[in-house]
Amino acid sequence: MDSAINILGMISFWTAILWLPIAIYLGTLALLASPLRQPPRRRQPTRRFVIVVPAHNEELSISTTVKNLFAVDYPSELRRVVVVADNCTDTTVDKARAAGAEVVERNDTNKHGKGYALDYVFTKLIEHDDFDAVVVVDADTIVSANLLDAFDNRLEAGALAVQAEYGVRNIHDSWRTKLIAIALAMFHHTRSLARERLHVSVGLRGNGMCFARSLLKNHPHRVHSLVEDVEFGIVIGLAGIRVAYASEAEVLGEMATSGKAAVSQRRRWEVGRWVLVRQYLGNLIAQAFRRRSLTLADLAMDIMVPPLSYVGLVIAGGLSLETVISLWRISDGAESWMWIGTSGWLWVSAAACLGLYVLRGVQYSGLGVAGLGVLMFAPVYVLWKVVIARPFRQRSVKSWVRTQRESETVPEDE
């Protein structure tokens, strides 16, 4: 039995050695994620924006989004709203036009998806329109009134790409959306605050993105993966361009509340990120060393870190294994100071770092102290992701998989 315990101890130790750096990375970001001082307004706005809304069968939400975009606090003569209707078969086009948006229709049954839609509309705009910057907002989103003002300020300061805070619009719809709000506050806001403080790229989140015309002209949006936003952030990062963070502006997107709708959304996110690991990780690491670039090193770490559910599951497993080992040592008459070995302290350190990261997410989620209570659903969510969502069985998914909205959902037993 002693040999078995020793083997388990070695497994625990080397597993902890592999996973502790990930936890330390997340904990460090959490420590650095204090609010940023907002830059002062530099001048009266003169920059012309085109707000692009990619839409695929969004007849239920497109009118609200377009009207919200027209209500932003920015001179009306300096902004336009363009909806790119990608392979729509409903009334999205009519409702977008009725709400006041310009509409670009795209129909291509072989190449369909958000990446293709953005590539198509960006190319048309650069060839035929006069503007200074493009903003991308999803079709189920509402934005803060200061969105364009915040982007204009960053562009005036020299940024070529900017990301706004991306949060949850329907945060109180279910325990799942509350957990997603905490998760996005960790993944989007916490990480972005820390990265902005480090002056590295905050990355792109797909919603609430802004690009200078010169960037799109010199680096065309030729990315069509399931996570085209993250991929484009890597592409321009490799070109030496960092994404700045406009933390004072926010876009709020609608998240899936039902299990069935959330499964497709989760598969798309996670499968897409694993594809990027295979495609870009080696080059990012090599270029980070070659150029001595903290930005590229962080972009590599960003796609290398597994989903938080898996990080938490591994750390919980490591702590459980160490508990078994410690109990055996106690039963074997070990001295009290030997109950917890080196690997045990490594797992405790990893758990502490992860806990700090999660608490930052609760802090920035908008749920207040109630967010701590929502965390009790986390084990259920992790089980759902690992057992039900099964992202690794969906590697062949390539098209635009539209997430079912709350207004369209039906009871899950139907």
Description:
This protein is an alpha/beta fold and 414 residues long. The protein has a domain at 48-258: Spore Coat Polysaccharide Biosynthesis Protein SpsA, Chain A, CATH 3.90.550. 53% of the residues lie in helices and 12% in strands. It has helices at 2-32, 62-70, 92-98, 114-128, 147-156, 175-198, 213-218, 228-238, 259-291, 294-304, 308-331, 342-364, 370-374, 378-389, and strands spanning 49-55, 79-86, 102-106, 133-136, 141-143, 161-168, 209-212, 243-253. An 8-stranded mixed sheet has the order 3-2-1-4-7-6-8-5, with helices on both faces. Helix 6 (175-198) crosses helix 12 and helix 8 (228-238) packs parallel to helix 9 (259-291). The longest helix is centred in the middle third of the chain and has 33 residues, at 259-291.
What's the CATH first level of the domain at 48-258?
Alpha Beta
Q: What separation lies between the terminal Cα atoms? A: 52 Å
Main sheet summary: 8 strands, mixed
What fraction of residues sit in β-strands? 5-15%
Catalogue the unreliable spans.
409-414
Structural category is: alpha/beta
Strands side by side in the biggest sheet: 3-2-1-4-7-6-8-5
Radius of gyration: 23 Å
Q: What shape does the CA trace take?
A: elongated
Order of helices and strands: HEHEHEHEEHEHEHHEHHHHHH
CATH-derived topology of the domain at 48-258: Spore Coat Polysaccharide Biosynthesis Protein SpsA, Chain A
Share of helical residues? 40-55%
| Total number of beta strands | 8
